[in-house]
Design goal:
Layout: E1 5-6, H1 10-17, E2 27-32, H2 39-49, E3 55-57, H3 71-83, E4 88-94, E5 99-106, E6 111-115, E7 128-134, H4 138-149, H5 154-170, E8 179-184, E9 187-192
Parallel strand pairs: 2-6, 2-7, 3-6, 7-8
Antiparallel strand pairs: 1-9, 4-5, 8-9
């Protein structure tokens, strides 16, 4: 099934539920793409279609100093417990205070979504049941993100853009995506990547 333009993601949710578990009892689904490509919104809608599947946002794991170097935390605090069928407990970074000051529990649900730039990285791919890539060019994504965030975060974007370029240059996600997701006026177009295995 290649999907199509639809506001109803039930068909995709059914397909994801039918996948074999990939991280202990969990089917871990990644939603990756450039910053500003619509990952959070799509992940939220897909979670609803999955009946309220939990969503892990990697913005909660990254820091000002480690925009992309969060693999260790994600592995130790999320992947390892889930792979044992245990409840994960991961720390939440407060971007205003610049520190981890909260923790969140994550039960090993049948399907768990993880969304954020770089969630399809090589360190995580072995634990994924499916990788979804938001198909929007990086320049358009970054423009959307900067419009969303406003001028107060212009300094952050000045550092983010080269960091994202550098990350994907050495650890690309899109070539490994199972599905490409494009947002349209009437919903989402979800298509299997041409070279992906059904």
């Amino acid at each position: 099934m290649t999907g199509g333009m639809t506001g109803d993601l039930a068909w995709l949710a059914a397909r994801l539920r039918a996948l074999p578990p990939s991280c202990g009892p969990v089917r871990l689904i990644a939603v990756d793409g450039h910053a500003g490509s619509g990952k959070s919104t799509f992940a939220g809608r897909l979670a609803e279609a999955l009946g309220g599947a939990p969503v892990v946002h990697t913005d909660d794991l990254a820091t000002h100093e480690e925009l992309f170097a969060w693999s260790g935390r994600f592995g130790a605090q999320v992947l390892e417990p889930l792979s044992r069928g245990e409840t994960a407990r991961y720390e939440i970074y407060d971007w205003a205070r610049g520190e981890f000051n909260e923790a969140r529990e994550l039960a090993p649900a049948p399907v768990v979504l993880v969304e954020g730039v770089g969630t399809g990285r090589r360190a995580i791919r072995p634990y994924l049941a499916c990788l979804l890539w938001m198909e929007l060019a990086r320049e358009h994504s970054w423009e959307r993100g900067q419009l969303r965030d406003g001028p107060d975060l212009s300094a952050f974007w000045s550092g983010w853009i080269p960091a994202e370029r550098a990350h994907f240059a050495v650890d690309p996600s899109r070539p490994y995506a199972d599905f490409l997701v494009r947002q349209g006026r009437m919903g989402y177009e979800v298509r299997m990547r041409p070279s992906a295995t059904p």
